[in-house]
């Protein structure tokens, strides 16, 4: 069921005043005559009110409960599927995949997604048709075990979406995925988020002009049990050769052994490569610096953050959003190492620390939670009993 028409508070006040008192607002006699002559549409809000920056709704407020959106699959981002908005809390969307052809059947909530509306994966219905040369509808990888009538659901969702209206520029502030310049086999450094180490890796299969596989080397001749994920041109976890050494971080090989700072120089000498960025005798070349699009907060490269700063970070735990107080403990270029100040909700000590890019939609300045109506899990407060001398005796 679709939500009722959106009406702004100011629009209601103006319409009510005109209807009851027949007064002229801002000298607009034409508006008065229209209302006097035809009152059938008096309670309908003019579309200009909805998107006026001063009196209308901001982009996040236009996304209402039960509206449908398109969401890119996290494992196959060139495919999209339909999701329903379960809740919108200050732009933080609680989304649920559409899996049933009738509204009587309840949809599975165990695979719900909590994501901000400006995340690069979220789109309005019809975005796929505008980019059909690369993207197409398909069942998400997390739903492969569920029986879904794919074509019927596509028709139903597209039909239902015609009853809702979203501004075409609603998601214009999203990160744009640009074409990459990588080729299969290129060597590079990769940040692995689970162990939070920097590994030696390579470019794997090229899926299209925008997405490719990133493979972490394991020094196994059979290439078994290799870790891989989908990358794109601005992915924060793909790094050029020498990046770890330049930032005084360890570079780990496939056997989890720390490498020396001159690893890449030794690599080129060993394989007879005269230039770091050329290919010789079939040996994989290193990725050219110009292929990377590492993010910064501004053109000058000034990140405006430094170790010791307090921030707030949103994290989904057991299908619920929590906002934690965090401390910035290290920063290297575009990556921030954050420590959770109160870890009482985590059973895994690996979750005490998080490494996020500086443009992450999950990190905010102090008091963001208070301003947006989220409960903040504050730092642990330690109480210390101080003993003092009084009459040469302890109390």
UniProtKB/TrEMBL annotation:
SMART domains reported in the protein's UniProt record: MBT
ATP-binding in keyword set: no
Assigned GO CC terms: nucleus
MBT repeat coordinates: 262-379
Molecular functions per Gene Ontology: chromatin binding; histone binding
Name of the protein described by the UniProt record: Uncharacterized protein
SUPFAM superfamilies (alphabetical): Tudor/PWWP/MBT
Superkingdom: Eukaryota
GO biological process: negative regulation of DNA-templated transcription
UniProt-listed Pfam families: MBT
UniProt keyword Repeat present: yes
UniProt keyword annotations, A-Z: Repeat
């Amino acid at each position: 069921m679709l939500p009722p028409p959106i009406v702004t508070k100011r629009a209601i006040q103006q319409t009510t005043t005109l209807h009851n008192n027949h007064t002229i607002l801002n000298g607009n006699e034409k508006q008065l005559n229209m209302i006097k002559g035809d009152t059938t549409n008096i309670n309908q809000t003019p579309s200009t009110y909805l998107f006026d920056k001063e009196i209308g709704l901001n982009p996040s407020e236009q996304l209402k409960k039960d509206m449908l959106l398109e969401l890119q699959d996290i494992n196959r981002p060139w495919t999209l599927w339909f999701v329903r908005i379960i809740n919108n809390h200050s732009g933080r969307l609680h989304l649920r995949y559409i899996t049933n052809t009738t509204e009587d059947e309840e949809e599975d909530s165990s695979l719900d997604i909590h994501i901000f509306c400006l995340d690069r994966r979220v789109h309005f219905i019809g975005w796929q048709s505008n980019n059909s040369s690369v993207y197409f509808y398909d069942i998400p990888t997390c739903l492969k075990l569920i029986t879904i009538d794919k074509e019927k659901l596509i028709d139903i969702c597209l039909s239902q979406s015609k009853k809702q209206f979203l501004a075409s520029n609603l998601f214009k502030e999203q990160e744009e995925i640009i074409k990459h310049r990588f080729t299969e086999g290129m060597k590079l450094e990769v940040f692995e988020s689970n162990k939070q180490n920097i590994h030696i890796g390579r470019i794997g299969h090229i899926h299209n002009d925008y997405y490719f596989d990133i493979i972490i080397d394991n020094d196994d001749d059979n290439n078994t049990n290799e870790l891989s994920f989908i990358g794109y041109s601005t992915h924060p976890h793909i790094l050029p050769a020498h990046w770890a050494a330049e930032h005084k971080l360890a570079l780990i090989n496939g056997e989890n052994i720390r490498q020396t700072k001159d690893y890449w120089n030794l690599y080129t000498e060993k394989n007879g490569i005269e230039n770091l960025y050329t290919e010789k005798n079939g040996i994989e070349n290193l990725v050219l610096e110009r292929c990377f699009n590492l993010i910064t907060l501004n053109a000058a490269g000034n990140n405006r953050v430094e170790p010791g700063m307090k921030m707030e970070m949103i994290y989904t735990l057991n299908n619920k959003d929590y906002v934690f107080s965090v401390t910035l403990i290290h920063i290297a270029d575009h990556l921030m190492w954050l420590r959770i100040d109160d870890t009482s909700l985590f059973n895994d000590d690996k979750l005490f620390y998080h490494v996020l890019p500086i443009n992450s939609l999950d990190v905010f300045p102090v008091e963001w939670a208070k301003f947006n109506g989220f409960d903040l899990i504050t730092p642990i407060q330690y109480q210390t009993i101080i003993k003092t001398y009084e009459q040469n005796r302890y109390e």
